[in-house]
Amino acid sequence: MRRDNLTWMSEFVLMGLSSDRQIQAGLFVFFGAAYLLTLLGNGLIVLLIGLDTRLHQPMYFFLCNLAMLDICYTSSGVPQMLVHFLLEKKTISFSRCATQLFFSLALGGTKFLLLAAMAYDRYVAVCDPLRYVAVMGPRRCTALAMVSWLVGLANSAVETAVTMRLPTCGHHVLNHVSCETLALVRLACVDITLNLLVIMASSVMVLLLPCCMVSLSYAHIVVTILRIRSSGGRRKAFGTCASHLTVVSMSYGMALVTYMQPSSTASAEKDKVVVLFYAVLTPMLKPLIYSLWNKEMKAALSRVLMRSSEPKLQSMTLSQEGLTLQRVGTGVCISA
C-alpha cells in the first residue's frame, strides 16, 4: 500500500537468533522444553488453587491470575518462534504482527501491575495483620485485578496503534524473534518522536510507578520485620514475601533497563535477550520459585495427590475384602 509516497508493508521477515540450521535445531529443543515446562508448571498452580479451598485467599487469587498471565504471555510468541526455527523463510503478516504486539504488551503490562497488587497484599499481611481480612476482601482483590487488566489492555491499545501506523518505506526485516515495539520503531522512515514519548509514558505507567509501589511496600515490610523480636517470627514474615520479592526482581530489573531508555543506545541484541528472558525463562522459573518457598503450595499438592489416590485405595480395599469373603465362603462350603 502507498500513501503520500510512504510504504506500509503487508508482511515482515524476522531474523531470529541465528541462521545456522544446527543451532536453530538446538534452540528449538531448548525453547520447546522450556515452553512445555512453563505450561505444566503454571497450569499446575492454577489447578491447585482451583481445587484446594485452603488456597482461596487473596495471595493465591493474585498468584492464579499471574500464572494464567504467564501461560498466555508465553503462548503469544513462543509457538511462532518455535515454528520459525524449522522454516527457511521466517515471515509474519502485518495483521498477525499487530495482534502479537497487542497481546504481548497487554499481558506484559498487566503482569507488572499485578505484581504491584501482590506487593500491596503482602504489605497488609505483614504490617497490618489484624485488619488483613477486612482490607483484602474479595471485592478489593477483584477490583485490583480488574484495574490491572484494564490498564494493561488500554496501554497496549494505544502503544500498538501508534507503533503499527509507522510507514517503513520498503524495510521489512525485523532484527528480532517476534514483533516487538522497539524493533518495529527502528524500521520507521518518518519522525518517531511521538512513538518515543508514548513508549516512555507507557514505561512510566506500567513499569516505573508499579516498581515504586513495590519498593515502598517492601520498605515498610522490612521495617516491620526488623521490629519483630523473635527470630522465628522474622523468618515466618520473610518467608511470606521471599518468593514474590524474587519474582519481582526478575520481572522488573531488565525491563526497566531496556524500556526506560528507548533510544539508539538500546541495541537489538539486548532487546532479544529481554524478550526471551520474559517470554521463556521467567514464566518457567516462577512455579519453581513459588513451590520451593511456599509450604502451603506443597501441602496443597500433597492433599490433591492424596485425594486422587483415595478412590484407588478404596477400590483395592473393597476388592481385597471381596476376595477374603469369597475365600471364607468357599471354606465354609468345603467344611460343610
Quick one: overall form? globular
The Rg value, from CA coordinates, equals 26 Å
- Strand arrangement within the widest β-sheet reads 4-3-5
Biggest sheet, open or closed, and with what strands and sense?
3 strands, mixed
Give the total of beta strands.
5
Instruction: Bin the strand percentage.
Output: under 5%
Structural class per helix/strand content? mainly alpha
Measure the end-to-end span. Answer: 98 Å
- Helix count from the secondary structure assignment: 11
How much helix is in the residues?
over 70%
Low-confidence stretches: 331-336
Instruction: Give helix and strand order, one letter per element, not per position.
Output: EEEHHHEHHHEHHHHH
Description:
There is one protein chain. The protein is mainly alpha-helical and 336 residues long. 77% of the residues lie in helices and 4% in strands. Strands 4-3-5 form a 3-stranded mixed beta sheet. Strands 1-2 form a two-stranded antiparallel ribbon. A hairpin with a 2-residue loop joins strand 1 and strand 2.
Task: Provide the fold topology.
Elements: E1 2-3, E2 6-7, E3 11-14, H1 21-51, H2 58-75, H3 78-85, E4 91-93, H4 94-127, H5 132-135, H6 138-164, E5 173-174, H7 181-186, H8 193-227, H9 231-259, H10 268-293, H11 295-335
Parallel strand pairs: 3-5
Antiparallel strand pairs: 1-2, 3-4
Helix pairs in contact: 1-2, 1-3, 1-10, 1-11, 2-4, 2-10, 4-6, 4-8, 4-9, 6-8, 8-9, 9-10
